[in-house]
Structures are given as C-alpha cells and as structure tokens.
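Notebook B, p. 112. Complex prediction, attempt 2.
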Amino acid sequence: MYDLAVDIGGTFTDCVIHDAERELVIAAKAPSRREDLGGGVLDSVRAAADRLGVPLADVLSSTRRFIHGSTVATNAMIERDGARTAYVTTAGHEDTLAIGKIFQKRAGLSEREISHLNRLQMADPPLVPRERVLGVRERLDYRGRVVVPLTDAEIAATIERVRESGVESVAVCLLWSFIEPEHEQRLTKAMRQALPGVYVSASVDVSPVLGEYERGVTTALNAYLGPPISRYLGGLQELLSENGLTAPVLLMTAGGGVVSIDRARQKPVTMLDSGPVGGTLGSRFVGAAYDEEDIICTDVGGTSFDVSLVIGEELQLEHEPVIAQYVFKIPKVAVKSIGAGGGSIAWVDRLGVLKVGPQSAGARPGPACYGRGGELPTVTDANLILGYLNPDNFLGGAMTLDRGAAVRAFEPLAEQLGLSVEEAAAGVHKIMNSHMADLLRGSTIERGHDPRDFELFAYGGAAATHAVGYSAEAGVRSIRIPADATAFSALGMLTADLTHSFERGRPVSTPFADEDFATMASVFGELGEQAAEQLRLDGEDPEAATTRRSLLMRFRAQVHEIEIDVPPEISLDAAGIDALIERFTERYERTYGEGSAYPDAGVEITTFRLTATIPTSLDSLPELAGRAGSAAEARTGSREAYFEAGGFRPVDVYDGERLAPGNRVEGPAVIERYGDTVLIPPGLAGEMDGRGSITVEVGDAAAGSGDRGRVSGGRLDPITYEVIRNRLWAINDEQAQTAARKSGSQFIYEAFDFNAGLLDGDGNGLFAGVYVLFHTTGLDMTVKEIMRRFPEISDGDVFITNDPWVGAIHFNDFVTVTPIFADGEIVSWAALVMHYQDVGGPVPGSFVVGSHNVFEECPIVTPLKLMDGGRYCQEVEDLLLRNTRTPMMNGLNLRATVASQITTKRRVLEIVERYGVEALKAATVQVQEEVEETVRGRLAEIPDGEWFDHVYLDHDGHTYELYEVKLRLVKRDGKLTFDFTGTSEQAPGMINGTISGLRGGVMTAVLVMLGYEMPWSTGGLRDVIEIVSEPGTINNCEYPAPCSGGSVCAEEATENVAGTVIGKMLGASTALREESMTVWYPYFNIVILAGTDQYGEPLASLMFDNSAGGGGARLWGDGVDCGGYFESVSCVCPNVESNEKIFPVLELYRRRAAGSYGHGRRRGGTGIEFGTISYDVDADLEVIVTNHGAAQPGAPGLYGGFPCALNTNVVLRDADTRARLGAEGAISGEVDVTAKGREVLEAKARTTLSTADVLITRNEGGPGYGDPLRRDPEAIVADVRTGLCGREDAERIYGVVLDGEGFDAERTAARREAMRAERLAGAHPVAEAVERYGAVGVGVAS
Amino acid sequence: MGGPPIGDSIALRREGDGTVVTACAECDHVFGPADHDPKLGAVMKELSIADLSPLNEVGMTDRLVARHFYCPDCALLLAVNVQQKGDPVMLEWRLDPAAA
C-alpha cells in the first residue's frame, strides 16, 4: 500500500510516495503545467512511480491516501480569475469591503512599500465591485436581537437582484449574524433553493466571528474561490480515477490539516496560502523523531524564503492572515515570506549600495547560468561563481549550469561596486543571508522567541547552500537539513491529519453569570455537532476523532486575543473558567512580558473554537537502510570555493547519496545531493544520521562572536552597512510593535497614535516608525535638551517629558528617550512617543476647549528620569498617575514603554557585540548620509524656484475666528527653506502649536512626499531643510500660550500647507511629477462620546470611524477613498460591530461620502459618512467635537483641482429615526428621517445626543488635482454608478451629460464647451485684481 | 522645449528670442515669462465656496470666496484659491530664471 502526496509549486510539481511495506520514501519532480495543473500532478506521480519501479496504474490503485497541496486558490487570487461574485449585506453597510477599515491600503505590504504613501491604494481590482454589492433590509443589534425583521418579500427581492446581476457566486454577510444566524441562514437557504447554479457562501458557515469586515472578506473570498476550486477538484478526481485511483483525494489546508474534496469545495478559502504548510508539518514530524519540540522551519525556493515555527510540537497559527491586501479570518499556519531565493536578482542602487531582490528571474528565464536567456545576476549565479554549486551536477545531473554566463552577468555589477566578480558574488551571497536572517529574527526574536532555543530545519532547493549563513547571522546554533529536502513540503503533507475546525464568535465578559456558563456549554455543543456531521459526511466515525476545545480570550477593550485550550477535565463553570483565566493571564505575561497583564480590566471570551481530528498521518519516518561506509568513500573530489576569510580555497566534495549514517564531513566542504548542495564552511562539520538528515552545529559561529564590521576612514564596507542598517530598521519596528502589543489603550493598539524612533549618539534622528510621524520629528529636540539639562547621564537612565516646547506635540504625547551606552559612551538613543488618553486638566481627554493659557490646560512634565541608573522611579510614576483620570491605562502605557525601551537597548547592543562600536557609529552616520543624498538627489530633479500657499484654522475654542498659516517654500542650492512669515499671531485658545509641532508638520510633509522608500531619518535632513518662522505665531507659539489641541490644530495646519507646496513643487519636476499629490484628510474630525455606556460603565472615548478621511489626489490618479490621514500610514477605522459592542450606539449606515472630496481631473478620495443613534441607554450622551475645516475647506487642491469639502457634524433633533427604521427597514442618510430640529455643530462643540436624536458625521475627503472639466467622463460614470459622485455634480462640476448607464459624448462635449464659455463670461484679468487687492506670495515682499 | 507640463495645466515653452514662457497646456496661450506666476496672465472670477460643493453651504460663505483662475483663451482652470473676501491675490509659484 502506498501513501502519496503531491505538491504543486511555481516551477515543479513534487510527488512523494511512501511505500509502507518496503518502508521506503521516494521523491520525484515534474515540471508544473500552468494551463493543465492536473496533468502536471499526474506527470509527477508517474515520475515517482518510475523511480519506484512500479507502473502508474498499480501505484494509484494501491494508494490508500492521496494528499494534494495545490496553489490553485492562491493563484486564483493573485491572478484575479475567481468567480463573478455578488456580496449581500445589511442595508446601509454596503461599503464595508471598499472602506477596508482604511488599513486595507497597507495590509500585507512591506515597510518600504508602506512608506510610499503616494503609491498606496485599496485592493485593486476589488474582490467584489461595488455595483455587485447588494443591501438587504434587516438589522440585528449587538446582542442578536432583531431591530429590523427580515421579511419573505425582502428575501424574494434580494434573490431577484442576485439573479439579475448574472453572478455565478454570492457571499452573504449580515451584521451580527455570528451572534444570531437566523436571518442569514434563512436568506442563504432560500438562495440555494432559488438559484441552484449559483455558489452560495454564508458568513456564519465560513467565519462566524466578530468583525463584519474580516468576516465579510473571508466569506467573499470563499465565494470567489468556490466555483474555480470546485471545477479544478472535480477534474482532478476524475483524472486520477481514470488512471486507477480509488482512494479519496484529501486536500491540504493552510491550517495544517487535510480535508475531503467535498469540504474543500464548501470552504475553499482554507486552501489559500497552503503551499508552505507542508514543510512546516514535515519539520514537526521529522523533529519529533529527534525529540526536537521547538523548530524554526525555513524553506528557500527559487523566488521566496518562508519561515514558520513549531513550538512544543505545536504549529503556530495566525488568525488574521492577509492575501492581496485583504485580511481574512481563517486560522492558518503562520508563515512569513520575503522575495529571496535562488532567482533573486542583485543590483546596485544610485548611491552605490548593493541590493538583492525582491525581483526574481523566476524559472523563465531564470538565473543567467541556466542558459535560458537570463542576463541578470542572481543568487544562484553567485553560488555557482563562488564554487558552491557543481555546474555538472545540478538537480542530480539533470541540468548543466553555465559558469561563464554567470560571470558575464556579474561583471557590470562588480564594476559598479569596484569589486572583483568573486567579491561581488560573495557580497550577494552574504546580503541574501542577511535578508533571510532578518526574517528569521522577525519570526523569532521580535515575537519573543530566542533562536538559540530552536533547532533549524532547512529545506527547499536553495536552503542547504545558505542555511549555515543565515542561521549563524540570526543566532541559531543547530541546523538540520533533512533528506529529500528538495521535496520536503510534499513529504510533510503525508504527516497531516484529517482535521475540521469550527468556531463561533460569542463575546462574553467577566463577571460571568450562570447564563453565560450555559451559553458556553451550548456553543461548544453546537460546534461539536457540526464537527460530527462533517466527519460523517467524510465517511469517518466521529467517535474515532480527538476533539480539542479552545477559547480566544483577551483583556476587555483590547483587540489582541490569545487562544487558550479548554482541556476535557475543565468544566465550564465558575471554578473552571477561573482556572482558564489564570492560564490566560500567565500566557499573556509570558508572551508580552512580566507585569504587562491587566486583570483589572476584566477578561473577555470572544470566540469558541472546536477542532476534530482523525489521525491519518504516517506513523514514523523510515530509517535509511543498507548504507554503510566512511565519509571518505563518499568523497568524489575537490574544487575551489570562496570564503570571506581567505578567498578561494580547496573544498572537499561529497556525494550525499553515498554518505552513511554517522559519517562526519569537516568543512570546508560541499555535499551534493539529488536536489540541493549542502555548504559547510571552514571550521564547521556536517554529520549524516540514520534518517538521512545532515546536521551542522553552528555553535559559537552564531551571532555574538567575531566577524566585526570592516570600518575604514569611518565608513563601513557596503555589505556590512546594509546588514546593520536593516537590523536597526527592524529593531525600531520591533520597538513600536512591542509597545503596541503591551499597551492597554485603544489609542495605541487600535488607532496607532504613537511611534518609535532611533537616534544616533548625538541625538540626530535615524529611524522613525510607520505610525504617527510627527511624534518622532521632535525627538532630536528632546534628546539635545536632555543632554543640556542633565550633565550626568548614566547607563540605565530613561527620560520622560510631555513638554510641547521640548519635542512633544501637545500634553497628551509623552516622549520617552533612553541613552544606549557602549564602551562608556552614548552610541544611540531609543525613543517612544505615545498619546495618553487623559493627562489631567479641566476637560476629560485633555483637549481643553475654552482655555486661555497653559495654566488652564494640563500639567507639563519637563524632562524627568523615569529610570535612574536602572532603578524604576516609582515616585515619578506616582506623580504622573496622580494627575490623570485614567491612571491604569497610563500606568500600563508607562510600563509598556519601559519594556520596549529596554528591549531596544538590548537589540542595539547585540549589534555592538557582533560588529563593534565603531561599526555601529559608522552605520549611524552612513544612514543619515544615505537619506541626505537620496533627498538631495530627488531635489536635483526639481527646478529651483518658489512656491506659496496658505491654509486656515477655523475656531479657536472660544469663537469662530479664522487664523492663517502662510508658507513660502524656496528650493535653491539643493536646500528647501520653509518660510512661514506672515502667519497669524498665536490665538487666545487651545489651537496653537509650538516649535515641536511646526517642525513636525514640515518634516512629516517632507518625509511622506520626498522621503519615500528609505529610512525616515530626520538627522539626514538637518542640512537640507531650513524653517523660518516668527515666534509668537500660531504654529510657533510662545510659552505660556495654550496648545492642548496642538496635534490636530496648528500642527495639522502646518502639515497641510507644507504638503500642499511640496505637491505643487513636485509638479514642476519632469522626473518626479508623478509624486505630486494633494494632502490627505487635512483635519482630523474628532468626535468624542461621553456619559454612561450600555453596561453602566463611564464612557469617554473617540469614535475612531473618524480616522476615515479621504486620500489626496495624485497627478497620476484619484485619491484613496477613506484612505486616512497624512501623518500616519497605519491608521484604522474599526468595524461597526466593534463600535456597537463598546459604545451605546447603533450605526444606521456607514459609507463613502459622495462629493466629500475636492473635484478635479483626479478627484480626492472620499471621506466617510455615518449616522449614529444612541442605543440601549436611556440617558443622553455627551458629544464633544474638536476639528477644523468645518467652516472652510481644510486644504487646497492643486493645478485647478478643488479643495476638499467640509468636516461636518449634524445633530437631527427629535427625529423619527426609530419608527422609520422599523417601517422602511433601513436609514441611508439624512433624507430618510424627519426631524424637528437640525443643529450643525461648530468646529469646537459640546452638546447632547438624546435617544430621539441622530448624529450625522461626515469627514473631509482629499483635495482634487487638475481641472474637473478634463476628467475622463468614463470615470464620472463609474463614480455615479458606485454612488461616489452625485448626478447633479456630474453635470454641474464635470460637464458630463449622463445617458442611462453611460454618458452622451456629443452632449458632454457641448456642455463642457458651454461651461468654458460661462467661465470666461464676467472673468477679469488677474492683473486688475492685483491692482485692486494687492498680492501675496512669491515675488511679493512679505 | 518639450517635456510634460507643470502639474496638470502649464507648459514651459522657449520662444524664438530664447526666453522661456509659461503657456496653457491645453491651448498654448502664453501667460508670461517663466519666472512669473502664470496667474498674472490669466483671468479670474470670484465664486462662492458653496459652488465648490453643496456640502460647503454650512461654511463661512459670507466671509470666504473661491477665486477661480482661468486661461483667457480656452478657460482651462489653473487654480482655485479659497480666501477671505478682499484679501490680496495669491501668487503661487515661479521658477528661477536659470531653472526656467
């Protein structure tokens, strides 16, 4: 009998056959057939059968299990050739997928990509176009109670609309269906009956958990993939049956199990990204044979490097993976990947720095040495040049490599670097190892795992050649390269079990009542029944299954959950749940650090999960049989190979197929095997064991010893520089993520209102994280002021301040900086800035509307030591917490900050230990030089000149006054001068900004618009940027001017005007004009709800829906709809379900707001509009507003584009909302209700929201770019069709005459011609206006 | 001189006498020397900020105006400036003579 696994890869399809009787494992490969994947599968099986010496039909007919890993689902997503799909959801919420929680624009992208705001877009094309999103009139509340019933007539009407849409698949996701599925189930049942040819996917079946965006995405993905997967699997089963297979085909899932074909058809989303999982399973299985419980699994193929972990023999799952910028909720084995493999292309950037990848030569044309037409230097070419690969014995001799072609490909690269070909190739090999080591660290150290505690498994065609390099670099000490490493993923699939996982979101919180315990038992009971039913459908006996129950738990108000097992011996009663909470708390502290748990907040169970497993895995891995002899007998000769220490030297070459258990091979050596080549550097040794694995003990060669960086004339060699630079960048990201995970504040973990930075020893900024940028632009001020004020700074000190004149933007932003000492001197500073929810003062939240000076605002904490020589200064914490309304949240933030600072310090010192102090110092200088040169290079592409603009601030906290920020930008001699002369004097209210905000606004605009795809180093810009400003003005106020609103007032104004003039300037550059854009969501529309929530608890928090303003229009395209704000690429707009669970509200509708943007040839992105009523409370709520752009457009358009529309908050008083909701089934806007009063809230306002009122909030979109009359009429038609442009605006602003579903070209041309004539009628020469009003701006004395 | 326009509306053009001028990207109307804001060769009209968007009707329509600047030949919209009524005309950019 045989067990058989087939894994389809991009280049090859691998097959592994386990012959149970002969205790033999055979692997074989066949080229993948892109247009006929099933044919490729059969080819690979035939190849394996040939190697086994058994006819194909005999193998198939004697196969008891056929396991298949397919990339069909992943490819369907990448190539976007899934089914034509409709999406059905609760009326009023049709834009959920399009809004994408804002975060969609950056989900799954690298930090480098994220830093280029101008290029960010929502998923394109969208999974489901807006036209095929259908609203259903029905509504449940956060407890599953019916607010609007779903009628039979509505079901019938919905089915008709689906039919008319002509789709082959439909996804259904109704709000709160995971709590009460009745509406959704009734609707989908009716659809399946009425539309038999349509694939119907219900969210309650696919992912019944909190969060309509992720649940909806998961369901939409399932629907999108359903038809093509069904077709593929049907065809495959038929093909294999025709060739003799009688056993069922089982499909590999990304969760690490296998499922039947029928189940895969029902839930194809589980197959997404399942490709690398086989290797992880294989590592766990093989590791168990060696008693290795903790394994780092590394897979190096032709184009990618994948890393996953096995801890305590458990696979590590991620619960919110990303594909094509869509976050979905299917637990899958956590695999981190980068574009680094044998095909990765080496190149030199404009600064002369050597880079490797992420572009790949792929399989066609492949590396130059493949001789298939490739001419670019790749990693495989480097390995061949360095003598690591045998040109005559590649893939077991099946392929010959051309060393001459590899050398020719490398020559231009070497010349650019001023190195020999061999040195350049060695550099490529080393940088490749460095990239992979960074990913290893990202998968281990940054998650709190010490790589020294793990065994590393290396597999995939290129792993064996790089494993020692990347492992040593990352600090791993022991490496195992298994037999058949080249087809290891297929081998791993044989070790999968038949697994079904069912889950249900059903939030319950402490203190638990008896009914909660009953709910828990009931939910697990339902999940158990679902699992049993599925197993019966698979033809399995449910009694034979092992069942695992688990809970996703978190501290109340947090977002990050931890999965806790519920062992059979624990009963779901008070004592049992207490025990689980204890386990949760312990696990939390183990994950996030001692003291990080926050039990006072209470604990919440969000999701119940049950996994049923039928064991189908192989029992054990066969041992090698019949091999004996010494290593010398396997030696086939020697050749020259290159090593960094000593250059080329002779290495022994061994035939891996002839090595016997116990053979030890001393380095330098290479061991050639069927599909890979194991490289053993000098000083190390490899040893073959009884299962054919080769183990290399790296030991002291791992990170932490020797290999100091080469510093010459204060500069590092380019390779070590790249390594240290990337390491510092990664350390800063780790610093931010550590703090975010440990914070208990929504401001941090949900709104990401924080940031981390690294500085050099003198306090010059090196790196800033991808969170709120202006938090880090004043760090140099803070550090330099601390160095001035504290003559004695010691190792172990940590400083803290919220002084807006010393680097903080306003009082809520606490800045913490930590000196890092090495060899007795400060070599670097770590820094973290967090927005604290409340820091005292007369107004909750500390935005002090009505203040006249700082004495009426909040306590100022001038720089103090939070830690003194390693001692945590409790007295300072006491002082800080004594002055706030939220001491627990603030205390937790303080501890999270200190923990992240200490971690950062340790990481930086690891670099010192590895490369030396001088290397670190040289790298910090070179980072700033690199940034300066990059920006100067970009400036060189822009003609010299002057640009001018202005913005207003409306309302100073007392009255509706206008304040003006004027800016003249001068670009000359490779420098930018930002001259704010003429700006309004400081205001008598809280809207002022200090010098910190002024610099923050300028630097944010510069970094976002000119500093993309490079480290955000303000230190590198200190000689490039000059700011001219008069103290005492609104964005450079003098103490003690009030400035508690500084971050969202004067700072944003500065940022808006600076961004506008830079966008204007970039438009003048031939080379960089595509970088020209308007600013994003100019002024944050802060709306705070206060009072008592539906649970009887005090309420005072921001509605984070207001993060969703519109992106700025780009010269090359429209702004991102609901793209978020300018100063943070990482802001988030939460789910409606999250809001309704936390706040006593019902969000009637939420959508992209038509016309909220600035019109233009390229329009700005839309803002958001949402309607809210209070819900489940009787008392009034308080509504507190702080914004600008409510009485005047927040920021201008460019080159004829219109400014954005206004931020607006309207309260409709005594409205008939609830009655109309009941009668009509949905409220989609102000027009749908009748009110007795209408109150437009001012830019600074405090008012009430009664149970009869409705709050309508609309955020600014982005400003426009170019003349609206030049906009493509087809784009207008699309905007009208999707509700983003009103029909009236289409004609009035754009001159487009609509005609049915399209436009009338002739009448549009005539209309536009008439509009141009109207423009000129009554227009006057500008010179006349200048004569009348005077002029301001460029060429005018200020 | 060729090359892409500045922003979305202005082209640079070298005249027969060697001077560089700004011209309309749509109709080639010459606004003036390249080291002057092209606006100075344009025409303008003051409209309400509500004309930019009906959503602006709740704004300071009494205090603010939206100044629209057009090419006098083809009416291409060059710029829109929101300013307080009676404020000086805003001159937005000029290139240095050598750069132009």
